[in-house]
Specification:
The chain has about 280 residues and is of the alpha/beta class. It has five helices and 18 strands. The chain is about 20% helix and about 35% strand. The longest helix is centred in the first third of the chain and has 13 residues, at about 35-45.
């Protein structure tokens, strides 16, 4: 049976107030209860603050277990200790925050007004059977990353080498098979650095691995690519500006290449369609 939860989105001094478990504070709405009042009670019980909320929710997240409504809230924080954590934007960018889809929207609007109007309705991919699973190879040589460039009448775009995981195949095996088909390279699979779910008409999770590639890119005529696609090397520092999918992964790869790769895979969703949108969230 599906359930309804209600919670708050509360900022204080440009920092987001979350529960100590890195989740947005929320609570189940009683039968015939008022979701806004439940959201305020959740802030009181989980954060230790009394808040004011908008009359209507700004975010609706539809998950496998039910629906979550989030209200913008305002409140002075208590001077004493409270069961809350304040996150700066730079901290929040690299934390395993949930629900994924709500965090994507919040991070995108952190320093300004929401980029949507009214209530934004989102589908949360967690717990949903994947429609298609993808595996991608992050290959960097001498400060340049191997990408597949697609020419399109509306503008060129890029993808990380990789493709769909076949039935009975592991993502690690799939990434090497796709790498050979698309570039002619062989390789050794290293650590998984990211799991990105493409939230469009269902769940499309992608597993991205550091891969040490061997050899040189094969001649275009020998590769299994669309007619408009060509593999090539791009400076890592250019990733943040490229129309690259996954858009939210590109700038992270540039960041990790400078600062160090994550110890465990970063997990987030990416619903961006317009790959020309500047992205650092």
């Amino acid at each position: 049976m599906s359930s309804l939860h209600a919670g708050v989105i509360l900022f204080h001094d440009q920092r987001l107030v979350v529960h100590s478990d890195l989740s947005l504070p929320r609570a189940p709405v009683p039968s015939r209860g008022d979701p806004a009042e439940t959201a305020r009670a959740a802030a009181r019980d989980l954060l230790g603050v009394e808040v004011r909320t908008d009359a209507r929710p700004c975010l609706e997240v539809r998950a496998t277990g039910g629906t979550q409504l989030y209200y913008r809230a305002a409140a002075p924080l208590p001077s004493g200790p409270a069961p809350a954590r304040l996150l700066s934007r730079s901290e929040a960018l690299h934390l395993p925050l949930a629900p994924w889809t709500a965090w994507e929207a919040i991070l995108r609007s952190w320093d300004g007004p929401p980029w949507w109007r009214g209530r934004l309705v989102l589908e949360d991919p967690l717990g949903r059977p994947p429609k298609r699973t993808r595996a991608g190879a992050v290959i960097i040589r001498d400060g340049r990353m191997l990408l597949i460039r697609y020419r399109h009448r509306r503008g060129d775009y890029y993808e990380i080498p990789g493709g769909g995981v076949e039935p009975g195949e592991t993502p690690e095996a799939a990434v090497l098979r796709e790498l050979a088909e698309e570039t002619g390279l062989s390789g050794t699979v290293g650590p998984e650095i990211a799991r990105v779910d493409r939230v469009q008409r269902g769940s499309h999770p992608g597993h991205y691995f550091l891969v040490e590639a061997h050899g040189e890119v094969g001649p275009r005529s020998s590769l299994d690519l669309e007619k408009t696609a060509t593999p090539g090397w791009v400076p890592v520092e250019d990733l943040r500006h490229l129309p690259l999918w996954p858009k939210r992964l590109g700038w992270r790869i540039a960041h990790w290449h400078r600062e160090g790769w994550p110890e465990s895979p970063a997990e987030f969703c990416d619903s961006l369609i317009d790959l020309r949108v500047p992205c650092d969230w």
